[in-house]
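Intended use. Records such as the Putative cupin domain protein entry shown here are meant for training and evaluating sequence-to-structure methods. They are not intended to support clinical decisions.
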Amino acid sequence: MTLNEMNDRIVRYGELIPCKTAFIDAHTPGSDRKENFTIIGGGVSESTDQHVHISIPHGFNIGAAGQPPKCRNSLHSHRTAEVFFVLSGRWRFFWGRYGTAGEVVLEEGDIINIPTGIFRGFENIGTDYGMIMAVLGGDDAGGGVIWAPEVIQDAADHGLVLGANGKLYDIKKGQALPDGITPMPVLTEAELKAYPEPTTGDVVPRHVARYWDMVALGDRKPALVIGEKAMLPDKPGFEVHLVTRGSATADMHKHDIPSVLMPMHGHWTVTWETEGTAHNVVLNPGDTMSVPEGVMHSVLPSMTGEASLFHIVATSDGAGTTWKG
């Protein structure tokens, strides 16, 4: 793996390409200023404008949402796992049929593993532009987003229609549903009753990990944050580890499947070997690197000071916890 080939598998934070028309609420006031990013995999964007940085299958998708203060992501659900960690800003996550069943505020570095089968949304409640990074289960991320009925109606009132094919059509731009394509069906009242209403007390202890708790557990070996025997026990089809300065090692190692490195704090040097020749690159907070399978490599902090990095690797298990109370 040459330096140029490896650079093709690094997405720098400053080079992320946003899509401002990714989802059905792109024109809805309060949600119309958000930016969506698809970093690895096809993601769940409903827009043909969405740029995909790395299309190589990993068994999961990596994306991000960037939002200015008071900007909200509308209520929706997924069929596979949806995990967020806060790269910057202060964020309120809320859930339930009307977003009132429970909520939690996350700070930088905190992580939430949102169960499948419940409506959820989030908003930037900080004072600056904020960014959250997302991991979605599966290569196809479950086939798209399931929207609360009022989100679909609000979107139609502002000129956006979602087709049953999962694609958006902007009436303001003169677009219309193609022949044979009907609007995305709205969930019926009977179907909506199947969506649970867990409280804050139900969700937070089992699905939220605070950054400094992860750092403490990752002081001597990487903290397994999400996985079968993790801080947040689950089998979403991938594992998430937090590596700190204390748990980083210079030992060269490899994986038999691609893995992903996402620095949270500090600068990290990734070293790998190709036919006996060592190469290295430095990753910064917000960067995302896909390490190919079979490549011997090590990851170490480059400078003094706080250093932490999320490591994600696919597993052979399912799509994650479906909320059952």
